[in-house]
Design a protein that fits this description.
The chain is of the alpha+beta class. The protein has two helices and 15 strands. The chain is globular and about 60 Å long. The N and C termini lie far apart (about 55 Å).
């Protein structure tokens, strides 16, 4: 069971159903803590040189002998020093399924508002100033992006000009592909397995939308 604590930036989380000692998850401008773990929120003056804070998240199904018995909500947060916090809690046999799902969404939304929404703005400002940067293993510059597309033998770095960048968002991952050759040049980014896929999605989509808006304005 998971219940909100005294502020909107903190929650009491039971990692297991029969756990009598819930851990407090707390977001502050200086650090993130979960129980006795404490993760400093790194600051960086030059985003073109690295990612100060990263996260990944997702839901895993808990399977019994013949059928699914529950779901596990997972969230990993890592700072620029490589320190990581894992937040995990589950719903079993449908018990508190709705309230736990709502709590999971609430935590993700607050995490975004507290740390990552502003980070997206900083990446977009780099792009506006025509400063190259790398985000989630994707290289950005004013001319386009470079992704590591899988071939039959290995991944190869492919350059896509902005007019050739296509995207598709799915429930568990975000895909970038070439509009000209989507089956040959493409890359999927899992929200659970790959760091900062949600940030990547926001930055790429915003750049594409702004370019489309500028084209309509010019015409």
């Amino acid at each position: 069971m998971t219940t909100p604590a005294h502020t909107k930036n903190s929650w009491l989380i039971k990692q297991r159903f029969f756990n009598r000692h819930p851990k407090e998850l707390l977001f502050t401008p200086q650090f993130i803590s979960f129980g006795n773990q404490k993760l400093s929120v790194s600051t960086i003056s030059d985003l073109s040189q690295g990612e100060p804070l990263q996260y990944r998240f997702g839901i895993e199904w808990i399977r019994g002998f013949e059928f699914t018995v529950g779901r596990k909500y997972q969230l990993f947060i890592k700072n620029g020093d490589g320190e990581t916090i894992k937040i995990s809690f589950g719903s079993y046999y449908g018990i508190n399924k709705i309230s736990l799902f709502n709590q999971y969404i609430e935590i993700l939304n607050q995490l975004w508002r507290s740390y990552f929404d502003g980070l997206v703005d900083q990446y977009l400002e780099l792009f506006k100033q025509k400063i190259p940067f790398t985000l989630a293993n994707v290289k950005f510059d004013e001319f386009g992006i470079k992704i590591k597309s899988a071939s039959f033998i290995k991944e190869e770095e492919k350059s896509l000009p902005w007019d050739d960048v296509g995207t598709k968002d799915y429930q568990t991952y975000f895909a970038i592909f070439s509009k000209q050759a989507p089956s040959l040049i493409n890359k999927g980014y899992s929200y659970l397995d790959n760091w900062n896929t949600r940030i990547l999605y926001s930055v790429v989509q915003t750049i594409l939308l702004r370019r489309e808006g500028q084209k309509k304005f010019d015409n």
